[in-house]
């Protein structure tokens, strides 16, 4: 399979990125490059003042939310690395290499926030609680299972799923806090991270849907997504004390199910038509232009790219 897949095929004759062969992938790369940010852009000084005004229950809730997100993020970069190591298409490697850098920035931002709000003792307590939780063990087993799959298609679906489903409940909680006008620096940080994750998720979907020859059944895709949804639902129901901020478990789980259905639809959109085109191996001259045009209407990527040959 790896010898036939355009994404995994050796590109020994391409010494430089230009001329770009796959404009849709390059446009996606330029989108995350344009949105790249660093920790120096984050200001949590107002948060430190606002923190003193929060009651103990809201602090307890945020402790769990931040700890859960940081714990999740530490595991997700391993899946990105495994996929990046397999891909030889220069345009796609550019995206995934930058994605890894962005994931490091996310971890740094999480660490800064939790370090600013909680002392070492509280941090240790929450991380021990997270590590012992059954859903944490299930999530780690899920990541190991699909990241070690011999199917590259399954790895891509798993990456899109992880970016879309895991920590969904935590992000929803942060956005709820934003609507209350609390801790603006933290909320701004998570807006940036949420946007990044959406770009990463869309790119994994794009590679799977538009640039892969490997067959994978609808049932297998549903299995990968369904297992992740079940794990996230367990965190919602049993770990996050949503009652402390008057968030409804039912509302979060219903929207999580909506997100999972949307992901499945995006993965399967025009899949049979794409397979036909890929099978003809028109991967340099015709498909680069075709997919560029498709993505102008189907995706919300920023279009920033150099003049290239088609």
UniProtKB/TrEMBL annotation:
Descriptive protein name: ribonucleoside-diphosphate reductase
Family: Belongs to the ribonucleoside diphosphate reductase small chain family.
Enzyme Commission code(s) on record: 1.17.4.1
GO molecular function annotation: ribonucleoside-diphosphate reductase activity, thioredoxin disulfide as acceptor
Top class in the EC scheme: oxidoreductase
PANTHER family: RIBONUCLEOSIDE-DIPHOSPHATE REDUCTASE SMALL CHAIN, RIBONUCLEOSIDE-DIPHOSPHATE REDUCTASE SUBUNIT M2
Transmembrane segments: none
UniProt cross-references to Pfam families, sorted A to Z: Ribonuc_red_sm
Annotated InterPro entries: Ferritin-like_SF, RNR-like, RNR_small, RNR_small_fam
Cofactor: Fe cation
UniProt superkingdom: Bacteria
GO annotation terms (biological process): deoxyribonucleotide biosynthetic process
Organism: Salegentibacter salinarum
